[in-house]
């Protein structure tokens, strides 16, 4: 039998195990192989598609690897200066209160140059969602030490490892914002295994549902790898993440509203 005929017969709706969401563009991902950003993009867009809110969703991404999100998410997107995404999102949400507004930021952006914008948006309880991808390093700009870099962790600016005595301790900003009265839902997830992906998607759906109900700010951290910045193969970086990142940044809900 002709191979094209076989493929046509196999690729039927009832035989499809997985289908890419229509809200991801056909642009080839520019992320490093094994990076968690692509999976995070997919989950967000799957939720937007399932909730049928494509035309009602506006995403904001600043500088860093997160800036590439504009190429892949088929929704309205707005660029922000480095660290300023929560401020831009605040303006958009207040101007269009019925829209679903989210920021998509890395740790160097959100927890360093954008610390003030993050803290105050969370404290005000802006009715939006913040997605925070934490790989413990500045991924795009050269692998420098970030506020989230672990003690002893090597980077281009801490080649002998982060010395807490001289460089300070890593900033657990997710726990910090959970203490603020304006945050409604705060959680830390990952996307390195199918089970983790399912939990992360559930959290993303909850965040958008919270926004629909005008509950306040939902903050979702996604602990990810940076195999290029960490100088590791993808599988090795995932294992390193499990053994080193997760004990310091444990997965799970941190602030869940009482039902």
Question: What labels describe this entry?
Answer:
259 residues; alpha/beta; 7 strands
Please give a structural write-up.
The protein is of the alpha/beta class and 259 residues long. The protein has a single domain (31-255), classed as Rossmann fold. The chain has eleven helices and seven strands. Strands 2-1-3-4-6-5-7 form a seven-stranded mixed β-sheet, with helices on both faces. Strand 5 (183-190), helix 9 and strand 6 form a beta-alpha-beta unit. The longest helix is centred in the C-terminal third of the chain and has 19 residues, at 194-212. The chain is globular and about 50 Å long. The mean pLDDT is 92.
Task: Please specify the SSE layout and strand pairing.
Blueprint lengths: L2 H8 L26 H14 L6 E5 L7 H4 L3 E4 L5 H11 L4 E7 H7 L1 H10 L4 E6 L29 H4 L5 H6 L4 E8 L3 H19 L4 E7 L3 H4 L3 H15 L3 E4 L4
Helix pairs in contact: 2-9, 5-6
Question: What's the quick description here?
Answer:
With 259 residues, this protein is an alpha/beta fold.
Helix- and strand-based class?
A: alpha/beta
Provide the low-confidence segments as ranges. none
- Through-space gap between termini: 58 Å
In sequence order, what are the helices and strands, one letter per element? HHEHEHEHHEHHEHEHHE
Strand count, sense and barrel status of the largest sheet are: 7 strands, mixed
Q: Could you say how many structural domains there are in total?
A: 1
């Amino acid at each position: 039998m002709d191979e094209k005929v076989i493929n046509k017969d196999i690729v039927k709706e009832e035989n499809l195990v997985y289908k890419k969401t229509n809200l991801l563009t056909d642009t080839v991902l520019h992320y490093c192989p094994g990076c968690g950003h692509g999976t995070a993009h997919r989950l967000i867009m799957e939720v937007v598609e399932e909730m049928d809110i494509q035309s009602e969703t506006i995403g904001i991404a600043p500088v860093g690897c997160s800036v590439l999100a504009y190429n892949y998410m088929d929704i309205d997107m707005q660029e922000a200066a480095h660290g300023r995404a929560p401020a831009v999102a605040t303006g958009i949400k207040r101007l269009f209160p019925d829209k679903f507004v989210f920021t998509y930021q890395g740790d160097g952006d959100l927890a360093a140059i954008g610390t003030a914008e993050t803290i105050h948006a969370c404290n005000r309880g802006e009715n939006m969602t913040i997605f925070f991808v934490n790989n413990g390093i500045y991924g795009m700009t050269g692998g420098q030490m970030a506020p989230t870099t672990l003690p002893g962790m090597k980077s281009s600016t801490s080649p002998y490892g982060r010395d807490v005595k001289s460089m300070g301790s890593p900033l657990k900003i997710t726990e910090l914002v959970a203490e603020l009265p304006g945050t409604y839902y705060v959680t830390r997830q990952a996307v390195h295994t199918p089970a983790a992906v399912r939990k992360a998607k559930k959290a993303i759906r909850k965040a958008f549902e919270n926004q629909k109900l005008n509950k306040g700010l939902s903050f979702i951290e996604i602990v990810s790898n940076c195999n290029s910045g960490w100088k590791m193969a993808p599988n090795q970086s995932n294992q390193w993440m499990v053994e080193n990142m997760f004990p310091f940044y444990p997965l799970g809900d941190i602030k869940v509203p009482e039902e």
